[in-house]
Amino acid sequence: MARSIEQVGQDLIYLKKVSSELGTELTTAYQSYFTALSPTLKQQSIQSCYHLCTTCYPDAFLKLNYNQRSQLLKTLQRVIGNAIAALMVHVEPARQSATQDENDDEPTGELTSISMMPNDWFATPTSLSTWQQNLEEELAHSLKEISYKVNLLLQQARVMPADIPKPILEASPEADRQGENTIDVPNLLSISIEQDISEQQSDAPLAARSAAANGTEQSAWMGDETSLEEPDEYPQIVQIHSLYLRLTEVEFADVNVLGLRKNIERLANKVSTLKREYFKKQQELKIAEAESAWRNSWFEN
């Protein structure tokens, strides 16, 4: 026998209460996680920038004078710090972001942040699940934003080459898939692109044609019979290095962060289970309401 509307309704009320409690617990878990992740993320980002400036592009970095280097490193720290602070806002609504005056010398790009969810995040298991998924997407977006702004800043400072394919600059997943493990340093992307020797000799910007930019493989020796007689015209394969923050690599650097991530995964599994149960109860309520409507509409002839 099907359960009554009132009984199923009580089940739904109980699941909503559990959702609210689980949402509070999950928020606390994320606060602890972000608190531990922030210094690790900052450290990993700066270490990667250090490697880019001192090992990948030392000649370009040494061309900067003392004031230029100091300003670059100061801005790098602020770009990274502001992005991390903006991420914390999603679990600490009272936290204030940096003012525009402090960010005037930061590079601007086309990446846009995911909008925050409404205030009734934990009202139902469904909205709680959506909030948690959006928070994870915002975390991934923040790492991409840091990578993009740092790469753009290094490019504007003429440390990184001027003409880099956009997917590399933006730290896109496509570029990461085309990247190579030529550097034993986490959170860096290394990829081969083509550069014309003639343009290199004339000091022109890189004429880069990357597999990451167009999704196709490029050959260094493509040409016709004429080009075979002019070997100097062959494109030269060069290595481009850029920042690509990967959450798994950042978390791996700190055992405490890894433990807090496992706790979030445990709570996320609870959210998924609760969401499935809530959906089943919603379907059960619809059936009970439909049966009630049938009975109320049925009349014997």
How would you describe what is shown here?
The protein is mostly helical and 301 residues long. It has one domain (5-297). Helices cover 61% and strands 6% of the residues. The protein has a two-stranded antiparallel ribbon with strand order 1-2. The two termini are 26 Å apart. 28% of the residues are buried. The model is unreliable at 94-102, 108-118 and 199-229 (pLDDT under 50).
Largest sheet, strands/sense/barrel? 2 strands, antiparallel
Order of helices and strands: HHHHHHEHHHEHH
Beta-strand content: 5-15%
Q: How far apart are the termini?
A: 26 Å
Protein structure class: mainly alpha
State the strand order across the main sheet. 1-2
Share in helix:
55-70%
Distinct helical segment count: 11
Q: Given the C-alpha coordinates, what overall shape results?
A: elongated
Question: What's the Cα radius of gyration?
Answer: 27 Å
Average of the residue pLDDT scores: 79
Q: What is the count of β-strands?
A: 2
Overall tally of domains: 1
Oligomer: single chain
> Spans of 5+ residues with little confidence (pLDDT < 50)?
94-102, 108-118, 199-229
Brief account:
Helix content is 61%, strand content 6%. By secondary structure, it is mainly alpha-helical.
Write the layout of secondary structure elements.
Elements (H helix, E strand, L loop, with lengths): L4 H52 L1 H5 L3 H23 L36 H32 L9 H4 L3 H6 L9 E9 H5 L9 H4 L10 H4 L6 E9 L3 H6 L2 H43 L4
Antiparallel strand pairs: 1-2
Helix pairs in contact: 1-3, 1-4, 1-11, 3-4, 4-11
